[in-house]
Design goal:
Belongs to the pyrroline-5-carboxylate reductase family. Keywords: Amino-acid biosynthesis, Cytoplasm, NADP, Oxidoreductase, Proline biosynthesis. By secondary structure, the protein is an alpha/beta fold. The chain contains eleven helices and eight strands. An eight-stranded mixed sheet has the order 3-2-1-4-5-6-7-8, sandwiched between helices. The structure holds 1,4-dihydronicotinamide adenine dinucleotide and (2S)-3,4-dihydro-2H-pyrrole-2-carboxylic acid (A1CAB).
């Protein structure tokens, strides 16, 4: 695996999170990792300096040597990027897409028939090897390329094999998910600050509480509802907190966050499918 060559097409936040995790894990040798963009040389230099990888402009990539291309541009830039890629890659080369809402069918239609497309949905915790990543291979993808994609994603966190129809919901839960927890932390910090507690104490205590609860779920046998029951003494402090959460629509707010993100992911694919029909 460390001899495989991978190239990120698009060198923004998500590419950097994955590069950091992959470089740290050693799954692929640093010199076999390429990151490319259209024109931002200083960004490429920054990635080279920080991670010891090869940053280059799109036109300079050694296309025929690359085993897997990782599409990491915004959905709005995907079509242009794919048109540019089409003349440069072969159907057998793996195309791993992290782009939210762009179907493997669309990617295949822009590239070659039976292009080896694997959709993945990591999150920014890839930076520290703690992503929760959905992986969904298209029917054309060979076992070898699916293995390659799963090994790569396993080096930045936990991998979940999902159906492509589940990708929108998975994006709502895990791709966008870190933002919900950061938002929760922002509220915890603001509440602490407004009530006279030092922010650093609140930040560390809040984050440790999220980490501990997550570990209890992942390490143990008990369902979240059972774990919650054990924290909650009758007529105690937790019961008062949970009542306030329920009264203020806490569960509904979480449901709406997930479903709205999933809906946006679906809308993006519909927009792209329409644009494909127009052409
Ligand atoms: N940021 C996140 O938490 C996650 C993002 N994603 C997906 O990752 C993709 C990238 O997101 P970010 O890194 O946040 O965006 P970003 O804006 O930070 O980076 C996008 C990069 O693509 C480059 N780019 C634009 N057009 C290009 C082209 N034609 N060819 C090559 N490079 C091109 C830009 O120069 C930029 O470096 C999006 O499609 C998003 O849906 C998926 C999971 C999580
Ligand atoms: O906000 C977005 O569209 C991307 C996809 C998942 C997380 N960030």
């Amino acid at each position: 695996m460390d001899k495989k060559k991978i190239a990120f097409i698009g060198a923004g936040s998500m590419a950097e999170a994955m590069i950091a995790g992959i470089a740290e894990s050693g799954t692929v040798g640093k010199r076999n990792i390429y990151a490319a963009n259209r024109s931002n040389q200083s960004r490429l230099q920054e990635l080279e300096e920080n991670y010891g990888i090869n940053g280059m402009l799109l036109d300079e990539l050694p296309y025929s040597e690359i085993d897997a291309f990782i599409l990491a541009m915004k959905p709005k830039d995907a079509q242009k990027a794919l048109v540019n890629l089409k003349g440069k890659i072969k159907a057998e080369q793996a195309v791993i897409s992290v782009i939210a809402g762009i179907s493997s069918q669309f990617i295949e239609a822009c590239l070659h028939d039976r292009q080896q497309v694997i959709r993945v949905m990591p999150n920014t915790s890839s930076t520290i090897g703690e992503s929760a990543t959905g992986v969904s291979p298209s029917p054309s993808a060979s076992m070898e390329n699916v293995w390659l994609a799963e090994e790569l994603m396993a080096s930045v966190g936990q991998v979940f094999r999902i159906k492509e129809e589940e990708m929108d919901l998975f994006t709502g839960i895990a791709g966008s998910g870190p933002a919900y927890f950061y938002y929760l932390m922002e509220s915890i910090e603001e509440t602490a600050r407004a009530n006279g507690m030092d922010i650093q104490t609140a930040r560390k205590a809040g984050a440790q509480t999220i980490l501990g609860a997550a570990k209890m779920i992942l390490n143990g046998e008990e369902a979240p509802s059972e774990l919650r029951r054990k924290v909650t003494s009758p007529n105690g402090t937790t019961a008062a907190g949970l009542d306030a959460l329920n009264f203020n629509g806490g569960g509904y707010a979480i449901e709406q966050a997930i479903l709205s993100a999933a809906k946006r992911s679906k809308e993006i694919s519909e927009q792209f499918e329409e644009s494909m029909l127009v052409k």
